[in-house]
Amino acid sequence: MANDRNCEAEVPEEDISGLLGYLQIKIVSNKEKIEALKPFKEEEKELPTIHRVPDVFHKMNELAYSPSVVAIGPLHGGKKVQKHLQAMEVEKLSYMHHLFERTENFEKTRHDCVAAMLKLESNARRCYADDVRLDFTLDEDDNPVDANCCTPEKFRSYLKEIDPIAANNFKFAAVEQDLLLLENQLPFFVLDKLFGLTVGRSPEYCSHGPSCYLPTGSHQEEKTEETADSDEEEKMELVLKNFKYSATELDLGGTKFVQGNKENIFDVKFTTHHSYFPFRRGGEFEIPPFTVNDWTELILRNLIAFEQSCPLMVKSYFTSHAFLMDRLINTAEDVKLLEKEEIICNKMGCREEVASLFNKLCKNIAIDSLYSTNHCLEVINFHKHRWPKFQVKLKRDYFSNPWTIISVAAAFVLFGLTLMQTIFAVPS
Questions:
Q1: By Cβ atoms counted within 10 A, which residue in 144, 212, 402, 408 is the most buried?
Q2: Phi, then psi, of 271 in degrees rounded to 5
């Protein structure tokens, strides 16, 4: 009984209050840490649109994702700008001053821009997947410290008058490429605001905002037959598993490639021509034409990276197109065939480089939708028949070059002569 009473001895109130106070401090501290890890507040539901490209893609082609001349925005700019980009920081400030000088009141424009950027800072930060800092502050001379929002103007005729970079084709092309990178972007509403406060106040420029320089035409989200089908995922799996035909194999199997709609690169169609005679059956693969040049890989890689980063916001059109080209193009012969049919305009020169480009684009890519699922299934079903397979084998093994054609013809002639000799020899 005495031992039980000792176990039931009461803990002093001072110790209890101290323990509760310690636990309360820990709970509050941990709650603050958890809240700090949240990328957005509860009322902020917008998803980020500007992401860092994963390291695995950087290792495949570092130049396709990292700026080489100019850093725009906080991911590569700011106080920790890389050494090879520092030379352009002074030029960016020069661009900014020239831009302000074109307005009627230099000082008012400068302060209005800084005030507007401070007001938009929280919204701009939410556009980035990383926790970034945008330093829109003034130095002791009332100059903006961070000029990352002041991008080089795209009007070459004006640039030639104020900056030697425009007269240097290498640098100008490098700047244009840097402005296309996913990691090197600013939210459009930031540019729109700056445009209105600077160029919009000058009567010599267009007053409709930067949107007037965007491509015209509206993209309507139509509910296509692919998205309407409830078994779309099953169809896509069939395509990913079974669509393994190169362009030359399809051509040998009776599929003719034709140039498609020039206005829409994604308007791919496949049509089957039916006939009672198997050797007259064929297919027609309609693919819109496109140009392949030194910029193609950079543009496609960054568009695919954007689609992979924002799957809930954008559809995987460029990822789908890269997948289709990856399957159709395996060797330089496939590129040659598509060039012949005027589907590919090859400005790289080397066909092996074009084939290598498309063969590497879809590595480590997650394909969750295909815009050409049904047409790819039609290609698969058409080439499952015996005659297309026989056609491929016949053309590849016996009619692939002039020497095999001569050999086959000689064999047929020899067979015919032997048959005739046998027929005439029977009566005698």
A1: 144
A2: -125, 135
What is the pTM for the complete model shown? 0.73
pLDDT at 79: 66
Helices (H), 179-276: 188-197, 225-228, 232-242, 247-252
Beta bridge partners of 269: 286
Print burial letters for 181-210: b (CB count within 10 Å at least 16), e (below 16).
bbbbbbbeebbebbbebbbbbeeeeeeeeb
- Residue closest to 133 by CA, chosen among 144, 118, 116, 150: 118
Largest CA distance in the chain: 133
How would residue 157 be classed by pLDDT, with cut points 50, 70 and 90? very low
- Residue by residue, DSSP assigns 258-269 as EE--TT-TT--E
Relative orientation angle of helices 373-382 and 232-242, to the nearest 10 degrees: 50
Is the pLDDT at 218 greater than 50? The verdict is no
| 334, 248 Cβ separation under 8 angstroms | yes
Give the C-alpha separation, 426 to 428, whole Å.
6
d(CA 411, CA 401): 16
Which residues have a Cβ under 8 Å from the Cβ of 181 and sit 6 or more positions away?
A: 65, 66, 67, 298, 302
Tell me the β-bridge partners of 287: 259
- Point out which residues pair with 256 in neighbouring strands: 284
Determine the Cα angle at 258 with ends 248 and 315, to 5°: 90
Q: Residues 72, 74, 75, CA angle at the centre, nearest 5°?
A: 90
8 A C-beta contact, residue 262 and residue 269: no
